[in-house]
Amino acid sequence: MNLDLPLIWAGIIAVAVLLYVLLDGFDLGVGILFPFARGPGDRDVMMDSIAPVWDGNETWLVLGGGGLFAAFPLAYATLMPALYGPVIVMLLALILRGVAFEFRLRGRRRGKAFWTAAFAGGSLVAALAQGLILGGFIQGVRVEGGAFAGAQLDWLTPYTLLVAVGLAAGYALLGATWLVWRTEDQLHGDARRWAGLAAGAVALLLAGVSLATLFVHPRVAERWGYSGDAFDLAQLAPNLPIPLLGLAGFAILFLGLRRRSHGWPHLGATLVFLSGYAGLAVGFFPYVVPYDLTFREAASAENALSLMLIGTLIILPVILGYTIWVYWLFRGKVTADAGYH
Fold it and tell me: Considering the domain boundaries, does residue 273 fall inside one?
């Protein structure tokens, strides 16, 4: 049996990016919410809730970026020059955030305040930079002769800014629902309020991004059956489960908050992200450099993909097993005496 290796690798990278967004998304969201906490004690608990998992969550970013470089080198060579600005900002923000995470633990009064601000700022900047990368990717990259032929600031447009704000709000929602799930008492109540506000903002921004995306490129509108003045229901019908999943996610989220559930709001927020991710994928698949280069055209040689797949099949279960084990080991509510701080 001949394996469709380019398709398999496209799937691996897509799943890695999705897992990164869902997992690192909530701990970036916790950082974004830092300024709204009542005091250092609540921030300590917020940090304790993500301390065992935050660095492992970023493993999926490495797998996604490394997989793109190895499996689709032509796409990597085209996309990176187009997105150097926000990529560098994102990496610097993630480094600052990581340093602040550890140094905040050991800082005295002024030092702790500085590293607290650095952690919050690094989280927000990283989220916004990722939104700019995503928006720049979706709106397309100008390619001539198999190489990037655009300007250095093509990624900075009203559309990409809208996506950036939307992604930051989405991460704040994931972070708030994570805290609803993992904290108690006053912080739990604050997180519930943050989740409601973030959910309302995400609903508005997601609707705005979805509408704006229809006008980003004719291929996107065509995929969703939009002709410029109306939708073709026959063409739209196969994709209807995607927005319905998002509506179901919002329903679970708001109902869970209303009924004072602990875990259901986070599940609802996750379903909203899954819907948005699938909706964007429908718009540009099979292009790995929208809308000029497909994943088959950008793929490495079959023997290289095959060799890398063998290594991935060995190491991926280890990563998944470790991730599941850590989340299971540190399950349950986080209290003020958790001990990390």
Answer: yes
Q: What is the pLDDT of residues 162-212, one digit of tens each?
A: 999 999 999 999 999 999 999 988 999 999 999 999 999 999 999 999 889
Q: Which domain holds residue 197?
A: 5-329
- Residue 107 confidence (pLDDT): 62
Q: Is residue 338 part of a domain?
A: no
Distance CA 208, CA 99 (A): 35
Task: Tell me the C-alpha distance between 288 and 71, whole Å.
Answer: 11
Q: For residues 24 and 50, give the distance between their C-alpha atoms in angstroms, rounded to a whole number.
A: 10
Tokens of 168: 């930051």
Query: What is the helix (H) or strand (E) element at residue 288, kind and residue range?
Result: strand 287-289
Per-residue confidence at 26, pLDDT binned at 50, 70, 90? very high
Q: Would you say residue 194 lies in a domain?
A: yes
- Give yes or no for a contact between 244 and 252, defined as CB atoms under 8 angstroms apart: no
Band of residue 338 on the pLDDT scale cut at 50, 70, 90: low
Q: Is the dihedral of CA 90, 21, 147, 290 positive or negative?
A: negative
- Assess contact for 147 and 59: CB atoms under 8 A: no
Measure CA 171 to chain center.
Answer: 7
- For the CA atoms of 113, 98, 45, 196, the dihedral, rounded to the nearest 10 degrees, stands at 100
Q: What is the pLDDT of residue 92?
A: 95
Assess if residue 336 is contained within a domain.
no
Alpha helices in the chain (DSSP H): 5-32, 40-50, 54-57, 59-71, 73-106, 109-139, 158-182, 185-213, 218-223, 233-236, 241-258, 264-284, 295-298, 302-329
Number of domains observed in the structure of the chain: 1
